[in-house]
Write a structure and sequence with these properties.
This protein is α+β, with helices and mostly antiparallel strands. It has one domain: Alpha-Beta Plaits, CATH 3.30.70.100. The protein has 4 helices and 11 strands. β8 and β9 (156-163) form a beta hairpin. It starts with a strand and ends with a strand.
Length: 194
């Protein structure tokens, strides 16, 4: 499993209805993308749920590198780059994925938390804690899914979780899910990824 995200921070007076319309127009295009576990089309709006910014920030869990590369280099990503400029695309290696207790419910909100891995720690302890946290999140009321991943170029972990309600038991940035493309969600490996 591979995790990926890019963020488009929007001007304070940006009409986020444009993002809603864009997702309504193109969101379905990845509903059957080969190699994609899931793509959550995420939006947070300044002043809503404590967000300091308006941001469009899709989050992906990939089953295959080939599927991710086809998306980035095969033309699909070009449309976003043409419309908004080419964003930095963050990538993390998967550590864990767990379906939540509300796995069958629609995902309405997402939480993403990034944390640095401090110098001088035992890496196996950090990873064990990240995996345990993904499991804890998945067991919380309203959890649809939880995942953990690591970026070893920045030494940073990321926790990503989907929720059926806007009061998740997770710390981090809260996003509204505008659409969920999940053609390979059932194929995402469960549990620890090694």
């Amino acid at each position: 499993m591979h995790a990926m995200q890019y963020e488009l921070t929007l001007p304070a007076d940006y009409d986020t209805g444009i993002i809603h319309a864009r997702v309504a127009r193109v969101g379905h295009l990845l509903d059957d993308w080969d190699g994609l576990g899931l793509k959550a089309y995420l939006l947070r709006e300044r002043g809503t749920h404590g967000s300091p910014v308006s941001q469009y920030a899709p989050f992906y869990l990939w089953n295959t590198v080939a599927g991710m590369n086809a998306f980035l280099w095969g033309g699909a990503f070009q449309g976003l780059s043409d419309d908004f400029g080419r964003p930095t695309v963050r990538q993390w290696t998967g550590l864990a994925h767990e379906e939540g207790v509300a796995a069958g419910a629609p995902a309405r909100f997402a939480v993403r938390r990034r944390r640095p891995v401090p110098d001088g720690v035992v890496l196996s302890d950090v990873v064990r804690e990240a995996v345990a946290e993904a499991g804890r999140l998945a067991r919380e009321d309203g959890a649809v899914l939880a995942a953990a991943a690591v970026d070893t170029s920045r030494w940073e972990t990321v926790h990503f979780s989907l929720w059926e309600h806007d009061t998740p038991k997770a710390d981090g940035d809260l996003f509204q899910v505008l659409h969920l493309s999940a053609p390979g969600r059932a194929a995402l490996p469960e549990g620890r990824q090694w």
